[in-house]
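Bug #77: duplicate submission created two jobs. Keeping one. Sequence:
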Amino acid sequence: MLVSSPNPCPLCGASSAAALSQIHLSDVWQAYAEQWATSFSDDVIAKYGNGPVALRRCSRCELEWFDPALEGDSTFYSQLFTGGITYETWRWEFDQAAQRIADGARVVEVGSGEGAFLRSVLPRCRSAEAIEKNPRAADLLRAAGIKVSEDDVRSDALVRPGRADVVCAFQVLEHVADVRGFLSALATIVVPGGEILLSVPNRERFRQGMEPNDCPPHHLSRWSPRQFTAVAEVLGLDLALVEYQPPSLSHARASRQRSVRTTLRPVTGPRVAQWAGRATARVRMPERRHARLAAEGRFPSQGEYGHTMFAVLRRRG
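Kept job's structure:
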């Protein structure tokens, strides 16, 4: 059912949205403790609370976002990385993005973390700069010889517009409350004809149970391919490319196992259904077939996706 949301869509500004579900932050805190051995101080929990947060889907651009938008602050993130969660040393989209960086390019990455991507392309860039608000990560970037700004990207863009041939933001959009303002800042930093490289988690990926990292205060929105078209329309950019990470072998098998198990359980009971699902998944998705489907990019046509989507948008001019 469509309702008028007191807070408009953070991407396109539409005021009508479907109410999809609610989550309770008490469940998020518990899931962090159980899945990642990560606990938060009483002050952090008091700031965000334990109560419900609504998940809405925009009627115009179909972005899903949490309302209210409880954006994680520096204290939340400093405590988030005290358990089993760490910065990734490499991501699937880094390989896709590296192909877009020409020799001599001026590159700015927003939300660089410890700089795995920038370090990899630094030798062939005319300049490489990070915008990173985590003080510890910023220090590591400076130690690697990378120029760092700890300012908010929106204020940074106003002061120093049009300074990059490529602007990157990998796995950042889903953390941002002001989605449109953030994207507008990226478009301001890049020169006319330059490219904006984005990656976000794909909400259509295979999922199991509560994922605390896909909830506030960590993630504030959930994305599907349709939103990249909306980004281009809202900001007057050209959408040049969208690519999809293939599902892992374990997830490709798990989706098939789930289908068989659901069908057989009423007939055979849970134990036999579980065994039959596992055996069928291995037969239908051997390692070699999975590798071939992934290499040929055929999983998306079957409605199967891995964790990440990668998009390239180009500023007109």
